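Dear all,

This email documents one entry for the complex benchmark we are building for the journal club exercise. For each entry we list the sequence lines for every component of the assembly. Then comes the predicted three-dimensional structure of the complex as a token string, followed by one or two observations. Please use this as the template for your own entries, and keep the labels exactly as they appear.
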Amino acid sequence: MPEFKTSPGTRDILAPDSGRWRAFQDVFAKTVEAAGYTLIIPPMFEDLDVFLRLGEATEVVSKEMYDFHDKGGRHVALRPEQTASVCRAFVEHRPTTPWKVWYAGPNFRYEKPQQGRYRQFDQVGIEALGTDDPFLDAEVIGLGAKFFSNLGLTRVKLSVNTLGDAGDRARYSQVLFEYFSRHESTLSSESRATLARNPLRVLDSKRKPDQELIANAPAIRDTIGGEAKAHFESVLGALEALNVPYQVNNRLVRGLDYYRRTTFEFVSTVLESAHTAIGGGGRYDGLVEALGGPATPGIGFALGLDRTLLACDAEGAFAAPKNTVEVFVVDTVDGMHAQTICNLLRASGVTADRAYDLRSMKAQMKAADRSGASVALIIGPGEAQNSTITLRPMNSGEQYSIPRSDLVGEVLKVLRR
RNA sequence: GUGGGCGUAGCUCAGUUGGCUAGAGCGCCAGGUUGUGGUCCUGGAGGUCGCGGGUUCAAGCCCCGUCGUCCACCCCA
């Protein structure tokens, strides 16, 4: 056993998974940059207060914050998500609106780790600030759906809902509180605790005894005002025009307290574990204001990398890319030939690797095989003597000699480039 | 934070009712006569049995603690 291991809830991502991560982010970037979103790279930690504005009732904030005091006495926290940072950046830089950004990177939450849930976990996401145009809602949601399909996923279910405006939300919360309070005796003990904290969250309960109560609970639709209702209808209409399949789930409330109006969630229907939500988001029209900026509407989503990749595994989609070199150089003379040949090939845009330590021909050929290279170049005493190279395509038993001066041309020819 | 399962070579795991120098497969290394990998054969390296206590003549096997991991709950990506 090694003396040191990664901290709980963290891990190393090695090849080939690391290549898959990068490809994942590339696909995401391509998807959203096609719609005009630009990359933002916020810091990984901020003043604790930035995140406290997400709402004290949010568990991510109240229980799971990775915070500490730095040497300057500042109370900072590793970001639990990036929406707050993006809004803070908006207030700090005041870009022209609509401001459409995307991000990718790790977030931190101090939780008990499980599969699909880590203390350091990666998300990709987008945020769009400055307009409450329902077409923007549909664009954001549609990009999420588009991304999943670009990955090759087909079993992703999209649920949408509206929470109404700030006043509606509070009113609905009150309605729910009264409703559940009337039936408190049949409510699970966990949900009773939740009820006191945040009545909306009771709708999220997956506990058996609560299911019937939840099914019969009053729906938000009956509580919200006409304006929010009209907005929601427009969003649904725009989604239909985009051919984005969805289903309205009026029990969908989501974990962050800042959501207003549109909320949505992507669930993989092939994942077995409890962690089937692979992404989610919504409108957060009060957040910029809460961070000291002008009243600015905003909407966005975040998708979990780990969980989405688990979904990919389950669907047999988006395999890790093969990260192999094209040419492998075997040099049993002195190692210097391998160096100059590799150098020359790389300068010509051909990826090339070699063996070290002047090992036996057999060992070097074995390394060539392992490297996945499609071509091996062999330099032994004979080749060194005549200034030739033996070129061996790895998938055939045949090989031939080429003049050293024709190296690059011959290699490009064999690689068909 | 609560409850439960697990923790033996780099990896996946065996290890019988506690009993001699702890095993297998894969991987790795070296060979298999005269420079050549992917199959096959032979040999080799590699383990304070997570860690710390305890019970016992004797513990990888039992007990306690601790750490890690997995599963469920909570919550969420």
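Observations: Chain A has a mean pLDDT of 90. Residues 327-414 of chain A form a domain with the Rossmann fold fold (CATH 3.40.50.800).
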